[in-house]
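It is worth pausing here to work through a concrete case rather than discussing structure prediction in the abstract. The textbook approach is simple: state the sequence, then state the predicted structure, then interpret. We follow exactly that order.
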Amino acid sequence: MRFSIQTASLRQLVLLSFFLALIPVAVLLWQSNKSLSGVSSYAISSAEHAVSSVRQSESMQSLVIDIERAVRQYVVVRTEALQRVALSHIDNQLNLLAQVCISLPQLTLCAEQQAALQALRQRFSEPVIETPELLLQQIRTQQQQITQQIWDLLEQQLQNQQQQVASTQQQLAWQTFGLVLLTLLLVLWASNRITAPVQKLDRMIRAIAQPKHQFPDEKLRGPRELTELGEQLRWLSSRLQQLEALRLILLRHASHELKTPLSSIREGCALLSEQLVGPLTPQQQEVVTLLNGSADRLSVLTEQLLDYNRLLQQAQPEWSQQIPQQLMQECFSDHALSLQQRQQQVKLDCQLNSLYTDATLFRRILDNLINNAQAYGAEGSPVWVKLYRQDDAVLLEVANNGTPIPMSLREKLFEPFQRGTTPRFDSVQGSGLGLSIVADCARLLGGHADIVDVVYADVCIRVRLPLLGEKLV
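Step two, the predicted structure:
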C-alpha cells in the first residue's frame, strides 16, 4: 500500500484523500441517524404507553363511581338487573386493574385494590346486604392513590426519556468530536503527502538560486508528478553547476589573460605618446591618443570584471567595526582626480561615528556609486553623500544632478550588464556592472538598493542596510 501511494499520481492522491476524509463523515451520519431513530422510537412508544395508562386510569376512576352508584341502588331496590350491573362494573374494574398492574409493575396498591374489589363482589352472594360504606371508601381512596401513582410513574418516564435524549446528545457530541478529529488527522495526513514534496521542491529551488548551492541529496518522495519534477530540478541543478563553473573559469581566465597584453599595450602607447622611440606626425599623435583612450577603457572594464568575479565568489560578509568617515574619505581620495576633471565637489553628511559592516563590500558600494555619480552627473554640480540612521536601518545616499532616470528603468538598471539610455560624460563607456555590483553587495550585507526621488538632486541611489543590534553607535 505504501509503494502504491508513493507512486500514485497527484490526482489519485487527491481523490484518495477526499474519500478517506468522507469515511468519518459517513460514519457520523449513519450513527446520528441510528441514534435519532432509537430516540424517536422510544419517544413514540413512551407516548403511546402514557396515553394508554392515562385512559385506563380515567376508565378505572369512572368505574369506581359506577360501582358505588350500582351498589347503593342495589341495596335500595335489590333487583337482579342491578346486581348484574354492579357485578359487571366490578369485573371490568378488576380486568382494567390487572392490565394496569401488568403494564405498570411499579404500582404498589394492586393487590389491596383487587382484595377490596373481591370482598365487595362477595357481598352480593349474601342474603341480606347493607351499604358497605367503609369498603366503598377504601376502594375510592385506593383508586385515587393508584391514579396518583400512575401520574408519578408517567412523570418519571418523562424524566427518564429526557435523560436518555440528553445522554444520546452527549454521545453524539463525543462521536462528532472524535470523527471530526479523525477527519482532521486524515486531512492533515493527506495534505502532508502533498505539501511535504512541495516544501522539498521549494528548498531545491532555493538551493539552486544560491550562489554556491548545495542541492539536497535526499530523493523526493511523493506523487508521481512531483517526483518527476524533483528529478528535473536535480538535473537542472547539475547543469547549472556545470555552467556556473565554466562561467567563473572563463571570467577569471579571461580577466587575468587580458591584463598582461593590456599592460603591454598601455606601456607601448605611453612610449609612443612621449615620443621616446621617435617623433610622431600629428596624424600619428591622434592615433596614439585614440589608442590610449581605448586602452584606458579596456583597463576599466577589466577591473570591473575582476571586481564582479570576486563578488560572486564571496559567500559571506566579514563583519567588523568600521569608522565610516575614514572609509568615505579614502574613497573620495581615489576618485579625486576624476571628480576634479569635471569640477565636481563631494558634499558629505555622515551622521554615524561607527558602523558594523564588511569594509570591502561597503567600499565597493561607495566606489561604484561615486563613479556612477561622477560619470553621469552634470559638470560643475556637487555630489551629495549622506550616511544616517532611520528606525532600524542604515541609509547610504549618493545623489547628483543630471538626467532623471525613468521609473520603468529603475529596477532594470540593477541587473548585470544593463545600461540606461543616458550617455556618460566621461571618456569611458560603461559595462553595465556598476549598479549590479552595488545591489549584490547590499544583498550580501542583508539590505537592498533603490533609485529614489529627493528634493535636492535629480538622481539619488539609496542603499538600505540593516541595523545590527547595538553594534552601530
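Step three, interpretation. Residues 2-192 form one domain. Residues 389 and 395 are 6 Å apart (CA to CA).
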